[in-house]
Amino acid sequence: MKGKEVQVGECAGKLTKEAADRLGLKEGTAVAASLIDAHVAVPSVGIDGPDKALLILGTSCCMLLCSEKLSYIQGISGCVKDAVLPGLYAYEAGQSAVGDLFDWFVKNCVPGSYEKEAADSGISIHTLLSEKGERLQPGESGLIALDWWNGNRSCLADVNLSGLILGLTLRTKPEEIYRALLEAAAFGMRAIFEEFEKGGIVAQTLYACGGIVGKNPFMMQIYADVLGKTIYTSGADQGSAFGASVYASVAAGVDAGGYASIFEAARAMGNAGGKKYEPIQRNVEAYHRLYREYKTLHDYFGMGGNEVMHRMKS
After folding, report:
1. What is the pLDDT of residue 284?
2. What's residue 197's pLDDT?
């Protein structure tokens, strides 16, 4: 039996009595067309048009950007028209280790004295390292890192790349390494945006949702400083679940109290009511210099200057 093709936000059918009884819902409830978990989060923050990017920051990072333009961006395999917002090309990029990278560090590289200090203070080890790292200035530790602990998803698209920390000394402290890893993740996202800009696609406004957004304001400030742009964060704890309700309101339709289009629903329901992070100018300038060093390492190890990471993997 051939299935019917439906658009995002379109009603794919209605719940039968049997399904409604099992789910505890009403018979005849509209069922929206299914979407990918990351894609469905886009209207949850109120994105209702092109050139607005959403960062979904959790164990990994997914970046969604809708545009009126079709452009071929290096290392980007996901670009589909109408996949997120009707009439627009949806681009997907991201990093394969973000929260997982920080989690690896705290589980494997933090001394017991730090664990005890965090426990005595009633805070998580991530919070302790963030508080200590926040007292440092950008570049103060002399460390810089590449964020490829799980390969590079975008825009090098190379799973055989690996992590690197440069500048370690006998005086290096855990919070300095932790901060360098946070900065590396932000530098990696900046490299992605720069690749898009080469293709003529510029993110004019940045939004963020995901677990890290509410848990680590220090990291969010680093992202704003490295990217040099204001970041509006979601007021919803579960961006994808909330985004699904936005699409569902369109599937339900106006007569059922919903909306006529996903654009209208995003404007009415979208919740970017979380904290807003403004870039701090002195940090922006410092990170601009540090990013040049990151990009030198990025290109050298990731674009053929030295294949040592590939050789060591084998």
Report:
1. 98
2. 98
Q: Which residue has 């670009």 as its token pair?
A: 79
- CB contact at 8 A, 281 and 42: no
- Residue 105 tokens, joined: 């560090």
Mode of pairing for the β-strands spanning 52-57 and 78-81: unpaired
- Establish how many alpha carbons lie within 13 A of residue 11's alpha carbon, considering only the half-sphere containing its beta carbon: 16
Q: What is the model's pLDDT at position 105?
A: 98
Burial of 193 (0-12, 13-18, 19+ CB in 10 A): buried
Amino acid letter at 116? K
> Residue 170 and residue 110: Cα distance in Å, rounded?
15
The whole-angstrom separation of Cα 224 and Cα 284 is 8
Q: Cα separation of 30 and 19, whole Å? A: 12
Can you list the residues of the chain whose pLDDT is less than 50? Answer: none
* Alpha-carbon 204 to chain mean position: 16
What gap in Å lies between CA 181 and CA 190, rounded to an integer? 14
pLDDT value of position 4: 78
Per-residue pLDDT reduced to its tens digit, 53-84: 999 999 999 999 999 999 999 999 789 999 99
pLDDT at 1: 53
